[in-house]
Amino acid sequence: MEGTPPPAEECGDQKEYLTIDQVVDKIYTRLNFKLVFLFLTASLPATQTALQVYMTIFTGFIPYSEWTCVSTRCFDLYQQSNYSETFYSAKGMCSNKLEAGKDFNWTSPRTSFSMDWNIYCETESKLSVISSFFFIGASLGLLCSSGIFDRFGRKNGALAGNVIAAAATLSAPWLGWFEAMLAVRVLQGFGMFINLTGVYCWVVEFSPSHVRGVVSPLILAVWCSGFVILVGISYFIPYWKYIFLTTGALNLIMIVPFLVYPISPRFALVRGREKEAKKILERYARACNSNVSFERTCLDYTVRVQNFWEQIKDFKTYPTLRKQTLLCLLSWFTIATLFYGFDFGWGKISDNLYVSYLLAALGKLIAILSSILFCQWLGRKNSTLLFLVIGLISFILAMPDVALGPNWTLQFVACLLGNMTITAAYAVNYLYTGELAPTSHRGMVMSMCSSCARVGSFLGIYIYLLHDITDRRVPLAIFAALTLVYITAVLFLSDTSGKRIPETPYDVELLAGNEQYKPIQNNTDTQNNEQYKPIQNKTDTQKQNNSM
């Protein structure tokens, strides 16, 4: 049961009954600076998720071109190469099995835990393991977040997650071994995904219904801006331990606005605190420069009885719901694999770590903002297909060895384009899945999809290890194959553009045109839809009794 309806004595016949969605839509009349400031400052903690996801790229980088020989064996090998500058590369180091501190010394002016802990060549996979363990923590955070938010609220859950991640990040410089860093990464992922989910829910629940399709990509854009911030921090701070300390401190700073903002009015209402919910909405109305009065307003909402096992059984009962959910699971897995496979591979694609990641981050921001326009013009399905087809072509174009200048290659330019289109498809995916899933099952479907995405995120980080083991075209071929799989999945999904959002699995079948299901008359159905029939609240029952 989602909540308790307002007591009958608090709502008389003379009052106006409105849901929170209707109240927010009534309050919001036009965009203003105070409202934009509210949403932006509340979304700031999302930047820290990107910082902590990608920080191992810069704190654990391996400078394969920045080392010099110190042993006779190394000098002899250098001589045998006719003093070629290509000797000082990953191939020269790894193929000859040179040992740090014995055969060579690092000459990079920057530090990294990979250099400190001798992670290179045959042990390079340890860097990928450290990076990927973030997503183990993220999966655990997603599993726990629903219970945390239901019991403590979105705001308090987000604050707790932020503190957990900040504490883990700040402790990392004093934990100087591989296993300890794995624990840090798990705690970072656990805390930041609870934080991100809580912030996202809080912002969306304060957003009017007609702008929620824009709010979701904008939060993702704020998230991507954290990528840009990380590049700047890493460029100007050459010591990996100080990067961790700076990021941990930013974690605590970015959450400060959230400390003074109110809890979600939905959470207050579910807890039976209608007066508190009204006060929160009144503060929101003042922020929107609205004069809406709540003296004659009674907050109302529909109570639904939902059973977890009944929801599971619905995937067997309703074929379209089952098919669309399975396709969404596949879509989320493939797009997350592509998204993070790219993000942890730019060090292999380009020689300049900071320029390549800066361009990739800016490309993501452009892609996310442009996805809003394409969704409006082409719809969810067609815009997703367009992005994926361009991405597929980009991966194929990146395979030939073509130099476009002294510092540019066709591979780098094509991969930048592919990175943008995959990011745009990822942005649309959130909205698309939310509109496909019925309201009664949306939380479950989104949680399942997010879990599949975390598996893809974990695996995607390892793809570019094949760059040195096999051939640089192998990762590109994998990306192209995954994109083709994603395109196939989207082709079999319904287009939600211009259609109402389904409330129940029965609605999903109706919208899909399944002839076995007929439109429900008067919101009742004795065989298939009884469990989704809205339950009348006490005030409605009282009104009916009075009229009789």
Give the SSE layout.
Blueprint: E1 16-18, H1 20-27, H2 33-43, H3 45-59, E2 67-69, H4 72-80, H5 90-95, E3 104-106, H6 113-116, H7 125-152, H8 154-171, H9 178-205, H10 212-236, H11 240-254, H12 256-260, H13 265-270, H14 274-287, E4 297-299, H15 308-317, H16 319-343, H17 346-349, H18 353-378, H19 380-397, H20 410-436, H21 442-460, H22 466-469, H23 473-491, H24 505-511, H25 538-547
Parallel strand pairs: 1-4
Antiparallel strand pairs: 2-3
Description:
The longest helix has 28 residues, at 125-152. With 548 residues, this protein is mostly helical. It has 25 helices and 4 strands. Mean pLDDT is 80; it is low at 1-9, 301-305 and 520-548. It starts with 15 loop residues before the first strand and ends with a helix.
Report a brief summary of the structure.
The protein has 548 residues and is an all-alpha fold. The chain is built from 25 helices and four strands. The longest helix is centred in the N-terminal third of the chain and has 28 residues.
